[in-house]
Amino acid sequence: MSINSFGHLFRVTTWGESHGPALGATVDGCPPNVPITPDMIQHWLEKRKPGQNKFTTQRREADEVRILSGTFEGVTTGTPIQLMIENTDQRSKDYGDIKEKFRPGHADITYFQKYGIRDYRGGGRSSARETASRVAAGGLAREAIKTIAPDVQITGYMVQMGPHQIDRAAFDWDQIEQNPFWVPDAKAAVDWAEYLDGLRKSGSSVGAIIEVTARNVPAGIGAPVYGKLDTDLAAAMMSINAVKGVEIGEGMSAAMLTGELNADEIFMGPNGPEYSSNHSGGILGGISTGQDIVVRFAVKPTSSILTTRKTITKSGEETEIITKGRHDPCVGIRAVPVGEAMMACVILDHLLLHRGQIGKNQGLIGSKK
Amino acid sequence: MSINSFGHLFRVTTWGESHGPALGATVDGCPPNVPITPDMIQHWLEKRKPGQNKFTTQRREADEVRILSGTFEGVTTGTPIQLMIENTDQRSKDYGDIKEKFRPGHADITYFQKYGIRDYRGGGRSSARETASRVAAGGLAREAIKTIAPDVQITGYMVQMGPHQIDRAAFDWDQIEQNPFWVPDAKAAVDWAEYLDGLRKSGSSVGAIIEVTARNVPAGIGAPVYGKLDTDLAAAMMSINAVKGVEIGEGMSAAMLTGELNADEIFMGPNGPEYSSNHSGGILGGISTGQDIVVRFAVKPTSSILTTRKTITKSGEETEIITKGRHDPCVGIRAVPVGEAMMACVILDHLLLHRGQIGKNQGLIGSKK
Amino acid sequence: MSINSFGHLFRVTTWGESHGPALGATVDGCPPNVPITPDMIQHWLEKRKPGQNKFTTQRREADEVRILSGTFEGVTTGTPIQLMIENTDQRSKDYGDIKEKFRPGHADITYFQKYGIRDYRGGGRSSARETASRVAAGGLAREAIKTIAPDVQITGYMVQMGPHQIDRAAFDWDQIEQNPFWVPDAKAAVDWAEYLDGLRKSGSSVGAIIEVTARNVPAGIGAPVYGKLDTDLAAAMMSINAVKGVEIGEGMSAAMLTGELNADEIFMGPNGPEYSSNHSGGILGGISTGQDIVVRFAVKPTSSILTTRKTITKSGEETEIITKGRHDPCVGIRAVPVGEAMMACVILDHLLLHRGQIGKNQGLIGSKK
Amino acid sequence: MSINSFGHLFRVTTWGESHGPALGATVDGCPPNVPITPDMIQHWLEKRKPGQNKFTTQRREADEVRILSGTFEGVTTGTPIQLMIENTDQRSKDYGDIKEKFRPGHADITYFQKYGIRDYRGGGRSSARETASRVAAGGLAREAIKTIAPDVQITGYMVQMGPHQIDRAAFDWDQIEQNPFWVPDAKAAVDWAEYLDGLRKSGSSVGAIIEVTARNVPAGIGAPVYGKLDTDLAAAMMSINAVKGVEIGEGMSAAMLTGELNADEIFMGPNGPEYSSNHSGGILGGISTGQDIVVRFAVKPTSSILTTRKTITKSGEETEIITKGRHDPCVGIRAVPVGEAMMACVILDHLLLHRGQIGKNQGLIGSKK
């Protein structure tokens, strides 16, 4: 129930601020005997790391993860795993202007109102830097999933940037790793680069929609009614900085469908039920169907922009602010590996939860299975 | 952490199936000395009750709530409150056809795959009937909120049915109670009635979008990073049957905004900060700003329709199904009071959580307050 | 984390007061397909029921359990199980004298100080009547354990009443069911009857020590360091009304042992490790060894006695009180089935928790197994 | 629900092993604006640190705590606080003999059976070294308590070592800091030194009983029935390594009392209720009375002794073992600051939990208050 934790059995608590000495994730409940090295986790952190191209903040962080506990001779021991990332780029001079002023669209005002603390060093706990801890935990979760459901594949990608959507007809899994936006549409990658470059030069920013798909998740994980798989995914994604909406399968568009269009018809395949479509996003009644689990979330544009905006100071005086410093014109880019990490943590957690309550699936359909 | 529970301090566990003897909510952590009578809760159950007009299922339930524990002489005692609703309409003959067949778009297949149980009596635990328990708990939460933050007002209403959206320019709070759809737009109410009547007669169904607004919530409630107010709201709404998407403030459209448009500018008012707009939906960094908290969720169309659909049986044979019986052409209508109830529970929970960790807000802005 | 709940995966929330309409247990996380009928649970409630002989309170309760949810066609469905017991004996006139006065040694004063409520009707939530809910949940847990670890046997018995201890040399499992004290020593049963009859006639009361043993629990359940099996057992037993001490294995006497005496030597048996002794009470490092799990707890004497005691009123005036009405001269007697129930719930919970995180034991010792 | 965490609102997760790079405590839910520096925490770690005299293990650890997150300019921010202690003394050669053999009375066998991992480097997660993390968290809790209930005083001391008990008539608070055993009886301190020196020289070890008293805790904290103050204290103390029994107030001896002797009579004092005695240990019905809260726990002797004991190897062969290396003849000595730390964490947690649900006490007794 800890406010900085998530997960039922695979339980992740993140800690640390953007400008403190370090941040990390305390992971409890990981199965034992999962092969894990820092490299396996580092792989995913590299994907999220800022400063890799002109489209992400030029703030440079080594983002090097250390495993401080919970492993022995290259495998997990079943005890808590501490994943620590030291902050190496703690320059705070860029942020001096915001010491007294609140940034419109930023959490510094609500943090101050709640806690009475004005940590002006760059967002503190509300900084997107916190998501590095999630990516580290997600890297570990991926390895643990392999020991239980080895076919599971988790892939995130951007499907919309500002007003520009991908062309679903041109969807190509192989394109995702080929461009800085993790976009599965080669033409969009080119167009978006031009679009974002313009925004970047003007000191503006824009939002995005990220989709994360988990393939080959076994049917039967999830649980009614507050431990639903989609409930936990919604919470996981909404907890990411700057996220304002979450969709499963058809998402908000489900409102526009009739019952005939929405209901995925069921057929019998060689390995169990198959479906004519996947409006459900792989989840019915909070439990996985065996189809692809499909989640989307919208990330708002960063509030750090070079346009003057009206605001107030800590003492209540009206003023204006320009947020200089290092910015992400589209923070949604770096949210892709974060969304994947959250998906991995939730899937692993539900695999364990299912095994705990049920052991293995009780209901087999048909003799073909 | 219980899978059928939600809330940190105000903790609700719902139990019961559509066709068992009873269902209800076990509520733990309610403050003491909250005046409460069954009538206060019944008021909200009446709002949700089916069979009140031709647009909701004709299944008739008394939905009478009993308070079995946790009160004494008309006030809460601080101990667990058991809210029980007996099922009076347990006719199950209507559902005989589905004993062996799975309904496309329904959770009966995943429940069977997980648990090995085929409770063919009408949805069992996955039935929307479970939401009566939530409405009961929400009614209690509303009374408890009054003792802590008496100005809070929670109102739900429908903003989209199928392809038809409300006209925001015609938004009128007073219209909400005047029509069977809880729609704040008089003209839409008339148009939608005609539209839905057509769907009902053809045995079809359609989805909807519900918006729930909480006004006068104090600034400072909520908590990083997994106990965020928006995280808990997303989970609360996504846990409702048939919900496929959740939005806070600008929601999925945040993807289309630039930083300039998205950031609500801040001014100093007589009672604290005021904002030029509310793209944030009243939440920044997971903490309330003091503006209206605005949540939307999409409800998919019910899978019980009169059109033949392809499906399989428990033993894996391919077949077809028509779901006869009593249906809701738009289950979204009855989701309005459910969304309100979830909002009430989450707001109360965060008021208590805030008081527990912080006592009262630590950071006051300006001398005017 | 709910304050009226316990258990990680098998999660029990009890609700209800001694003089309200009903009380019960909301049980979440039970495995599906566990055969269960009300009779199976009633069996254990009968054991706890008051008024069965002159040594327990003459307050009469039918203590009839109803299963309101979570089962279908005689088996559990995996969804929440509501176990309700209606209060039939709600006479409150006996308690009139205590409406304004606090009873020394009773929780009515602290409940009033905390909640501001004086539920004078007989203890309210602090009444031992609450333990009926635990016994019901324990009955269910026993059936679920049978489906996972069928050889487990859980037995409680009294080992001390007032100053009188059993003779361990005369320990006889078969005696336990043969006397009203559940004492495994035939001679003690006779002696204690005489002793307690004297106390009863004089309107006094006395404490007791109950021991609960779980045999044939598999090695490997439990978890460091706050989910230890002994941690959860200590909490489970200490949460029972009137309990003031809990011991595992050697218990408080472990203080007097040297390392040589305390360490149970290990040998290799046909089915795995065997031990020369069981000072550990079947638990090392919070994890079961496969030996008998042995827990003891001390129950204080009831505060309801016929001797005048000094006390104060709600308004702070000094006065005296005699608690007339129906009493248990030794509430420890009825604590025996309660202790068994808590042991059953904890064992089942840890079987599920272990299966969730680990699947099955990872480390087999020796080729003989 | 995390298995390595405790606390409802002030939530502590410990991580790390005796021979890994570091260990620590992740603390969530601490109130903001609590003044805290590493020195304030270090003070308590010094008290626990081994190697300070001949009666504790000669293993030397700097035990230097670093605060990696959750503070800014010398106060807590309300976000997670990471307390890290690096392991500096990682010599493992002393333990080589136990690589294949299990130590009787030690958790290495159950850890192996559960997890399939044999971390032979000195106890791993089951090492008493883990308690350093608790002491660090407790140091923080003490400072947070000061901001809410400044008069609370928490003191631990030893009341029994082996067969030797203190003389309660000679109890002197000022003696506690004057001897290496934290014993409040000057004569006992001298006698025990001689006794323990003999045990140390013979390579033996012995158990102990520690008592922890919290003075000036306000009446009204704690909650029925599984969040009782005594329930949480029992779990907190039982979770400490080597603890086999926990008592509140009269403890196991409550079994021997009659109702007349056990019930503390109540009088009216200038600041509220006063009691003739404190058999209850300051807790009635799980809620504090305002009297001293008194908890005792028994620590078994360490299993590391110089006498040959029979055991088995990982492969199931029978053999013998002598545990050479650095030992504590009485680990109970170092358990004193650990018990204090757990008391501090539980008291703080319940102060917050009470404030969350109740705000402040609702029931005032008498007009004098």
Architecture blueprint of SSEs:
The structure is a homotetramer of 369-residue chains.
Chain A: E1 5-6, E2 11-16, E3 22-28, H1 38-48, E4 65-67, E5 71-72, E6 75-76, E7 81-86, H2 108-115, H3 131-148, E8 153-161, E9 164-165, H4 186-201, E10 208-215, H5 229-238, E11 243-248, H6 259-262, E12 266-269, E13 272-275, E14 283-284, E15 287-288, E16 293-299, E17 309-312, E18 318-321, H7 332-358
Antiparallel strand pairs in A: 1-2, 2-3, 3-7, 4-7, 5-6, 8-9, 8-10, 10-16, 11-16, 12-13, 14-15, 17-18
Helix pairs in contact in A: 1-3, 1-7, 3-7, 5-7
Could you characterize the architecture of this molecule?
- Four copies of one chain form a homotetramer.
- Chain A has 369 residues and is an alpha+beta fold.
- Chain A contains seven helices and 18 strands.
- In chain A, a hairpin with a 5-residue loop joins strand 17 and strand 18.
- In chain A, helix 1 (38-48) crosses helix 3, helix 3 (131-148) packs across helix 7 and helix 5 runs antiparallel to helix 7 (332-358).
- The radius of gyration of chain A is 21 Å and the shape is globular.
- Chain A starts with a strand and ends in an 11-residue tail after the last helix.
- The interface between A and B is large, with 128 and 128 residues.
